[in-house]
Amino acid sequence: MAIPLRDDRLRQLPLELGHTPSHAEDDFLVGEGNALAHSRILAWPHWPDAVTLLIGPAASGKSHLARIFADRSHAGFVTPEAIADIAGRNERGPLVVEDVDRLGYDEPSLFHLLNQAMRGERTLLLTARSEVSDWTLATDDVRSRIRRAPAFRLEVSDDIELSQMFAKLFGDRQIKVDPKIILYLVARMERSPEEVAVLADHMDRLALARGTAITRTIAAEALSFREAERGDDGQQDGDLTTDE
């Protein structure tokens, strides 16, 4: 039986080895819990609203989407220390304001940026962990303007957690793997953190032995090998011989 993802054994996996995860657009793993937010970011600059809010828990992909948005739009990142200066410049470039619910941004300056956006002078992407109703805002005008912005929620599903584990383990090994292969694995594997570690190691060994990148064929072989080890007779879904 699959072990829950939040089992204590998850902390024993080698997931924190100093690797900095990629925030490249091609490396964002799209799943059921983040597809709408991802589509919104890719729709820029054709947003019907100048302000967009991303809401999701830690490690749900908000910062990755913010980086994709910044790369596409050449947006600047606002910090609590710089917001007053940025708001006073009256410039028109897109901006990202991360963790707007937690970092104590100066509210008059935030109000000014929101007004600029609502006048069509700039685009704003805001990120937060909690719903607007839970923010400790002292200014009702700031809250009312943020409430007008469409909110896109990112949910951390088992699929996303498993995908992030694969991405982290491959990254630690300095292996570039197509996100489609990771999604292929997650859809077919036994759902446990231990299985992620075993599959990643097995695929790495197969690829090294053959002198190739990790392909969908290698992923399928690793899945079949693990299935045989467990004594299962079932077949994996889909075409196991065609690389993508």
Strand and helix layout:
Elements: H1 35-43, E1 51-55, H2 62-73, E2 76-78, H3 83-88, E3 95-97, H4 107-118, E4 124-128, H5 140-148, E5 151-153, H6 158-172, H7 179-186, H8 193-210, H9 216-229
Parallel strand pairs: 1-4, 1-5, 2-3, 3-4
Helix pairs in contact: 1-2, 4-5, 6-7, 6-8, 8-9
**How many separate helices?**
9
CATH C-level of the largest domain:
Alpha Beta
CATH architectural arrangement of the largest domain: 3-Layer(aba) Sandwich
Looking at CATH, which topology of the largest domain would you report?
Answer: Rossmann fold
- The CATH homologous superfamily of the largest domain is called P-loop containing nucleotide triphosphate hydrolases
Question: Would you give an account of this structure?
Answer:
It comes from Devosia soli. The protein has helices at 35-43, 62-73, 83-88, 107-118, 140-148, 158-172, 179-186, 193-210, 216-229; strands spanning 51-55, 76-78, 95-97, 124-128, 151-153. It folds into two domains: 33-153, P-loop containing nucleotide triphosphate hydrolases (Rossmann fold), CATH 3.40.50.300; 157-229, Helicase, Ruva Protein, domain 3 (Orthogonal Bundle), CATH 1.10.8. A five-stranded parallel beta sheet has the order 2-3-4-1-5, sandwiched between helices. Helix 1 (35-43) packs parallel to helix 2 (62-73), helix 4 runs parallel beside helix 5 and helix 6 packs across helix 7. 42% of the residues lie in helices and 8% in strands. The protein is an alpha/beta fold. The longest helix is centred in the C-terminal third of the chain and has 18 residues, at 193-210.
